[in-house]
Structures are given as structure tokens and as C-alpha cells.
Amino acid sequence: MTLPRLAVVGCANRDVTIRVKDLPRTGETLLGEDLQESMGGKGANQAAAAARLGMATTFFGMVGRDSAGERVVRNLTAHGVDVRCVREGNGPTGTALITVDSHGENTIVVAPGVNDELDCRAQSFDVFDVVLGQLEVSARTMLDVARRSRCFLLNAAPPTKVHRDLLDASEVVIVNETELLGLTLSEISRCVVTLGARGAEYYEFGERRDVARPPVVQPVDTVGAGDVFCAAFATQFAHGRDMSEILKYAVTAGALATLAVGAQGALPLDSEVREWLARAS
Ligand code: RIB
Known about the structure:
Elements: E1 5-9, E2 13-19, E3 36-40, H1 42-52, E4 56-64, H2 67-78, E5 86-89, E6 94-100, E7 106-111, E8 130-133, H3 139-147, E9 152-155, H4 164-168, E10 172-176, H5 177-180, E11 190-194, E12 200-204, E13 207-212, H6 225-238, H7 243-256, H8 270-280
Parallel strand pairs: 1-4, 1-8, 2-6, 4-5, 8-9, 9-10, 10-11
Antiparallel strand pairs: 2-3, 6-7, 11-12, 12-13
Residues 11, 13, 15, 40-42, 45, 96, 108, 110, 136, 223-224, 226-227, 263 line the site of alpha-D-ribofuranose.
């Protein structure tokens, strides 16, 4: 039996985070804690999380010819991600400016840098059972990838208008409640809506078919929890599990990802997710 292979296509960033008591309001200046730098980007987070969950994972993304780019590649390699399809561009590596409040909630602003240059036309996706993409890189690139994938999962994040063709080329669309506002649920064949601490729901053409609730945890930092959910979902989808099992696994992995600081600070192992699932049953 050959093991499934996953490709993750998307953004890689350097995350610069300041922790604050409350998130800033418009026009407000706040004093926070010291700056923390870590590795992020929805694509890179999802690739690292999937590899950590034991899936053979290849990342397709862009970095700059700078020290942040070197760190992105080194970090993905350390997580076991195949980085041979990561390319260097002429601009800087993407940077995300993040604030995290005392409840673990966040705001994120991204300067995309070379992420916008991602172009996969010369690359083949035939060997991958599942390809997972997001919308932090060009939508045209993502549509091209989706059309050439055997099975494409779209995490339609960050919130944006998503082209009908891309929705149609996606086997499952994964969004949070904010991202859902730009979509019409009844027009999407298969959609998963993540609800933060309330778990996730699965819809077919707008009809709710399944729901999963996560374990109760005390979140430290929710940045990247959605990425871990998507990665976990993709790994179980690639293994051909049924939707109810996939959802339970993914909400558990997403909850565990909130237990440390940084988008990749608490990436769970497959064994840890299964331990929590066993405890809950
Ligand atoms: O989903 C979290 C990620 O969004 C952060 O790591 C940041 O880089 C932005 O891409």
C-alpha cells in the first residue's frame, strides 16, 4: 500500500507578534510586551502542521533572498516538509504583523513580499493525492493549481471574493465565519465552516450534514489554529476517512494548536491528537 502524499501551495511569512492586554481600537496607541519573531504564513503553517501529523508533505511557495527566507526553509525542513519546490524571488520574504490579546485572540496584517510572485505553471501536481491551497497568494495561481490537481481543498482565507471557477474546482472549501460572509453556502458543493472554540460544521449545498465540537482547552494564542485545522483535515481526507472522523480529528488538532505562542508553536503530533480523541470517547 502506498501512503498518500499532500502538497500545500501558499504563503510563507515571518510573523512579528506583540502581545497586548486588549486588541487596539482605531486611532489607539498601546504599549505591549516585547516583539516576538516566529515562522508563519498560512501555507507554510499548514505544510508544517501536516508534516508534524505524519503526512508526506511538499510545500510550494516563495521566499526572498534574505535571512527570513533562509529561516522559513530551515524551519519547514526541521518539521519534515519537502522544500524542493520552494522558490526564491527578488523581493523580501512576506511579513505578518500580529497582535495577540490576553484571551489569545488576534489581529493580523500581512505585507506579502515575494508571496505575490508564486507561479506554479511549470510544476506538476500529478503525484499528489490531495493539494491544499489558500488565498494569500494570487487567486489566478490558485485556480491554475486547482484545475491541475487530482483533488484540491481550498482554505478560502483570508476573507476575499472567491471566483466561482475556483469554488467549482475545489473538492471541499474550508472557511471561518468571517470568510463565510463573502460566500453563498448553498452554492458550494462541500463546505466546512470552522467556529473557533465551538468546533466546525460540514455543509453540502448549504445543508448541514455534520458537526464536531473540540475539547475544552485554555487558549494561549489562536494564531494559526485554523491552519492546523486545515492541515489535519487534509491529512485525514487524503487517508479517505469519513467526514465525521475527519472533523473530530481536525477540531482536536486545531484546539491543541492554541496551547502555545506562535502559529507553529504548538503543532500537535498524530499520536497526541489520537490520545485526546480517545480521552473524549
Ligand atoms: O493563519 C495565520 C497566519 O496568517 C500567520 O502565520 C500569518 O503569517 C498570516 O499569514
